[in-house]
Amino acid sequence: MKQHFCLISIGTNTNRVKNIKLAQELLSFNFPQIHLGKEMDTEPIGINNPAHFTNQLAMMQTKLSIEEIRQVLKNIEIQVGRIPEDKEKGIIKMDIDLLMYDSAILKVSDLKKEFIIAGLKEFGL
């Protein structure tokens, strides 16, 4: 079975130290070969909450399909405490997005964000 290259973004603006650490642990458990980039403090974009974010880029290889990866990421968000009602309040306990799967760019607009550009440079991509 083929290994697939994946690029993911991680972000939280609530209980940032605790939530990012828990997400990192859960990601590492589910994807043992994950490589986590540097944590970055960023300002919010497009939400009505002035709280800064801790963001991070990660890359990994996996045999899972896009759908399987997205399900794992969604489960991790829930384990960290994400609930749908929080989003409208600007509370982001955890947001994990699959940005790339092999050569397919899944979140084109996200690749323009400063922390993602910095993370790509850090990874040499």
Automatic annotation (TrEMBL):
- What does the record give as EC number? 2.7.6.3
Q: What enzyme class is recorded for this protein?
A: transferase
Q: Which InterPro entries match?
A: Hppk (IPR000550), Hppk_sf (IPR035907)
Q: Which Pfam families match?
A: HPPK
Q: What are the 7,8-dihydro-6-hydroxymethylpterin-pyrophosphokinase domain coordinates in residue numbering?
A: 8-121
Taxonomically, the superkingdom here is: Bacteria
Q: What protein family is recorded?
A: Belongs to the HPPK family.
* Name of this chain's protein: 2-amino-4-hydroxy-6-hydroxymethyldihydropteridine pyrophosphokinase
Which species does this protein come from? Answer: Bacteroides sedimenti
